[in-house]
Design a protein that fits this description.
The complex is a heterodimer of chains A (about 180) and B (about 500).
Chain A: H1 3-12, H2 16-38, H3 41-58, H4 68-86, E1 108-109, H5 114-123, H6 128-139, H7 144-151, H8 155-178
Chain B: H1 4-12, E1 16-17, H2 20-64, H3 66-79, H4 89-100, E2 104-112, E3 118-125, E4 130-135, E5 140-144, E6 150-155, E7 160-165, H5 180-189, E8 193-202, E9 205-215, E10 222-223, E11 226-227, E12 230-238, E13 244-252, E14 258-267, E15 286-289, E16 304-306, E17 340-342, E18 346-347, E19 354-356, E20 382-384, E21 388-407, E22 420-424, E23 434-438, E24 462-465, E25 472-482, E26 490-492, E27 494-501
Parallel strand pairs in B: 7-15
Antiparallel strand pairs in B: 2-3, 2-14, 3-4, 4-5, 5-6, 6-7, 8-9, 9-12, 10-11, 12-13, 13-14, 16-17, 18-27, 19-21, 20-26, 21-24, 21-25, 21-27, 22-23, 22-25
Helix pairs in contact in B: 3-4, 3-5
Classes of the chains: A mainly alpha (about 180), B alpha+beta (about 500).
Chain lengths: ~180, ~500
């Protein structure tokens, strides 16, 4: 039995230590996905909380088809999408998480390269669907097939979105390089 | 210009961590919910346990009283003037006398796999077709087989009285305990049962003994993991009064090992229970009315199983359209209950040829209707022309049909007009045409006025219960529609036809 299955089994029996272990294991990955998708610290925290509360609530009836991480990442992505859609005025550019101005931000920033920060800001200029494909595939390691299922589209559409995302990121980053 | 690989490497370096305050908040909330849900879960598990016990008890009770039911069945056979191979004149006399008694009271003792005996009391009232049962722990049942067609189940553990529709497909595939006649006759006339008669002495009295051995089809019944191969019934009738005094039923496996045994003593009181409360059910019991959910036929008959209907993903996109339509079915508000059909039932339309009134669909190919793809995504549906259009599926052989599920288009909540489903033996729909669904209220499709309701398309599809309409055998099935609430066209994503080949 994999570690996740074992933890999930314990969680089904109400073991809060299993919940803590799962949280420790996936908190960074999930928070990164949420924050990269919606670029809103508080909303990302809420997504993280929603997902773990839901996990605690539904553990007994939960049947994970593939793997727990995939399930949790999909849950975060769904919540991030809902929150993104509910915004009346979507942000078109985020604050720089890596700069000193963000030192007081509750999120602990691990970005240490200037280019990654630029990429992060550039990601926000992509349409959400393309950004979601890019983040889920590259950052969360999800397969295109699973992303297609999550987005309710064909795998060809996902591949197109990924291709467009790469092309746009490349163009935006190069444009900034020139500046 | 950066390569894809460079961009991916940059992205992988982006890592955020929530701070400690967030961690504590998330964990505190999740742990609180976990504690609460664990308590509820424990309660649910306990409840499930009780329900399971009740179901087991229910099942046992019904099977335990089966010998009594057999007697009732004999009586009805005689009432209807039927005959069973091997039925003797003496048995006919016994039946004649037994049916004159106002009530039959049966004390049953059952044991399973040599386990502890359980005692149940059953009362049969032939005139009103009511059957009561009381277990030693206070659980009680009433099967009202009169026009009411109700079943009452009292669970003493949580003091609930559940009222539900009588199950379809009860023991021996009959509709109820009192309508076992047809199924018994069918079975026994197929020579799967033998009936013998001889004389014995019981408590110093001379009795006529009738032994009936019924061979069951493969895996028709099981007790736990053991398959019941045959059932032996033994009925004892007083030679003087001709009243049936006792019965015994044994269920055996293929090696003649007794899996379960029920012994019954029968007497004939002048009065019996008026209703379930007469069995000691408190008037304060919480009543749960579950009538009207006939699709979820709860049954003890192992030959009926829930159809495994794989549903596509729910998908509503785009601007919602106004779907207000007269005679619109109210949404169930919960998943459709499982549909029970005979064992071996499968989708017999999968991959079968489809023809249509619109030979050249606007979008898609006709064979997509039976290709197994039920998803709402583009590329999964066929778009037919305006006005009344139909598609016909050739099942390529005669099948006994139990259910049909249609997905017109579930990407958007919409209602299709004049949905009519017909079955026939021939492609021209001349021979043995039967309409199993029709919501054409104004006969605009010209196929007759239908009384079925309009319905909103969802990913569950529309399930048409053919089983409850009696045995329908057909080779060709035709589906009509006449535009929808969103546009003037007709669409099909998938059609599934559940049935079994006609032998």
């Amino acid at each position: 039995m994999s570690e996740d299955k074992h933890l999930l089994k314990r969680l089904r029996h109400g073991d809060s230590r299993a919940l803590r272990q799962l949280y420790e294991k996936y908190r960074t990955d999930l928070y990164t996905v949420a924050l990269t998708l919606i670029h809103d610290v508080h909303a990302a925290e809420d997504c993280l909380q929603d997902v773990f509360v839901r996990l605690a609530e539904r553990a007994a009836d939960m049947h994970i088809r593939r793997n727990l991480k995939g399930y949790l990442v999909s849950s975060v992505a769904n919540r991030a999408r809902d929150r993104f859609r509910s915004k009346t005025k979507p942000l078109d550019k985020i604050e720089c998480f890596g700069c000193s101005a963000c030192a007081t931000d509750p999120a602990k920033v691990l970005i240490d390269r200037e280019e990654s920060v630029r990429l992060l800001n550039t990601l926000m200029r992509l349409p959400f669907a393309q950004r979601e494909v890019f983040v889920l595939h590259v950052q969360a390691g999800m397969k295109f097939k699973d992303i297609a299922e999550l987005q309710n589209v064909s795998i060809k559409t996902v591949l197109s979105r990924y291709r467009y995302a790469i092309e746009k990121l490349r163009t935006f980053l190069d444009r900034e390089d020139i500046k | 210009m950066k390569s894809e690989h460079q961009i991916k490497q940059l992205a992988k370096q982006i890592r955020f961590e929530p701070d400690g305050i967030v961690d504590e908040r998330v964990l505190a909330c999740a742990e609180a919910v976990l504690e609460k849900s664990t308590k509820i879960q424990t309660s649910v598990l306990h409840r499930r346990h009780l329900i399971w016990r009740t179901i087991m008890r229910n099942s046992m009770t019904k099977l335990a009283t089966a010998a009594g039911i057999i007697i009732a069945a004999f009586i009805f056979i005689h009432q209807l003037g039927g005959s069973v191979d091997g039925t003797t004149a003496a048995l006919a006399r016994a039946i004649e006398n037994t049916k004159k008694m106002p009530w039959m009271h049966v004390i049953s003792q059952s044991s399973y796999n040599g386990g502890q005996k359980r005692t149940e009391h059953g009362w049969y009232h032939f005139a009103s077709k009511k059957h009561f049962s009381l277990a030693s722990n206070g659980a009680a049942w009433c099967w009202d087989n009169s026009e009411a067609q109700k079943q009452y189940t009292y669970n003493p553990h949580d003091e609930t009285l559940i009222i539900s529709d009588l199950p379809k497909g009860g023991f021996h595939g009959s509709d109820s305990a009192f309508s076992m006649l047809e199924s018994l006759l069918t079975n026994w006339n197929k020579k799967v049962a033998t009936i013998k008669q001889h004389t014995e002495r019981l408590d110093g009295r001379k009795v006529e003994v009738y032994e009936i051995v019924e061979t069951l089809p493969d895996e028709a019944m099981s007790i736990g993991s053991a398959i019941v191969a045959k059932i032996q019934y033994k009925l004892l009738a007083d030679t003087e009064t001709s009243l049936i005094l006792a019965g015994r039923m044994e269920r055996l496996d293929k090696n003649n090992k007794v899996l379960a045994r029920t012994e019954q003593q029968i007497d004939y009181p002048k009065i019996g229970p008026n209703d379930i409360y007469a069995l000691g059910v408190p008037r304060t019991a919480e009543i749960i009315d579950m009538t009207g959910t006939t699709l979820a036929r709860q049954t003890d008959d192992p030959r009926l199983v829930a159809l495994d209907i794989q549903l596509p993903k729910a998908m509503f996109v785009g601007t919602p359209q106004d779907t207000r339509t007269p005679h619109l079915e109210r949404p169930l508000g919960k998943p459709r209950p499982p549909f029970l059909a005979p064992v071996g039932t499968k989708n017999v339309a999968l991959g079968k040829p489809v023809s249509s009134s619109d030979e050249e669909p606007i979008i898609g190919q006709l064979d997509m209707i039976t290709d197994g793809d039920k998803e709402a995504a583009d590329g999964s549906y066929v778009e037919l022309g305006p006005l009344v259009q139909y598609v016909t599926i050739d099942l390529e052989a005669m099948y006994e049909i139990y259910a049909i599920v249609i997905w017109h288009y579930h990407k958007q909540a919409r209602v299709y007009y004049d949905v009519v489903v017909q079955m026939a033996d021939d492609a021209d729909f001349i021979t043995n045409v039967k309409t199993v669904f029709n919501n054409d209220r104004d006969n605009s499709a010209g196929l007759g006025v239908g009384k079925d309701l309009h319905y909103t398309e969802t990913n569950e599809g529309k399930l048409i219960d053919v089983l409850s309409q009696g045995s329908v055998k057909a080779r060709y099935i035709r589906f009509y529609s006449n535009t929808n609430t969103s546009n003037d066209l007709n669409h099909y994503i998938e059609v599934e036809v559940y049935g079994k080949p006609v032998k």
